[in-house]
Amino acid sequence: MSKVLNKIYAKHLYYCKLTAMILLLVLGFSFQGSALSSSLKSPISSAEFSTNASPSALELIAPSNPPPADPSNTTICEGSTATFTVSAVYGSYQWEQNDGTGWISLPGKTSSTLTLTNVPFSSNGYQYHCIEDSNPSGAATLTVNPLPVAAGTIAGLQPVVCQGDNLIAYSVPVIANATSYYWTYSGS
User: Fold this and answer.
1) Contact partners, residue 47, CB within 8 Å, separation at least 6
2) Predicted confidence band at 128 (pLDDT cuts at 50, 70, 90)?
3) pTM summary value
4) Which end of the chain has the lower number of beta carbons within 10 A, N or C?
5) Residue 107 phi/psi, 5° resolution?
6) DSSP, residue by residue, the chain
7) How far apart are CA 55 and CA 174, in angstroms?
8) Residue 129 pairs with which residues in a beta bridge?
9) Mind listing the pLDDT tens digit for each residue in 134-159?
10) Residue 123 main-chain phi, psi, to 5 deg
């Protein structure tokens, strides 16, 4: 009777090990071991494993997390807010900045979204990437467009314009970084 119970126990143990290993393979784990005397090939993965290997001879290899999706390049105006985002997958994030001298960690920037406020023009060309569970994303470049300077003094030939006057010309000096001009009148 004892031999029969031992055989039933051994068969039960065999199927428990097999079920656990298949489940781990489905989850992305693989196995390596030196005591693979009765190896089985899983239809799920090409990883080999043994049902009678001792725990010390069997090594479980966890799947590595892929790097986060790359953030997109961003263009803003000087003094605005810039936002970079990576896909939220695992939960351990650290954003880094490269100002041309190498990557440095940004303290407190540990979520899947990086928000930079009141960005100065001097940040133009900086790169940002996110390290998620030790895997760096690709870099995104920040483009900061400068704000136009003040318009300066309005100049014209006539200091006073009266109703019915025609062909009155006014001008302002060229405004650096301006892409268009918009004139308004406020008064009565």
Assistant:
1) 25, 30, 31
2) very high
3) 0.55
4) C
5) -55, 135
6) -HHHHHHHHHHHHHHHHHHHHHHHHHTT-EEEES--TTEEE-SS-S-EEESS--GGGEEEEPPPPPPPPPPPPEEEETTS-EEEE----SS-EEEEEESSS-EEE-TT--SSEEEE-S--GGGTT-EEEEEETTEE---EEEEEEPPPPP----EES-S---TT-----EE-PPPTT-S---------
7) 78
8) 96
9) 889 999 999 999 988 777 787 776 66
10) -85, 0
Mean pLDDT score of the chain: 76
**Distance between CA atoms of residues 127 and 97, nearest Å:** 6
**Distance from C-alpha of 45 to C-alpha of 22, rounded to nearest angstrom:** 9
| Distance in angstroms (rounded) separating the CA atoms of residues 84 and 113 | 6
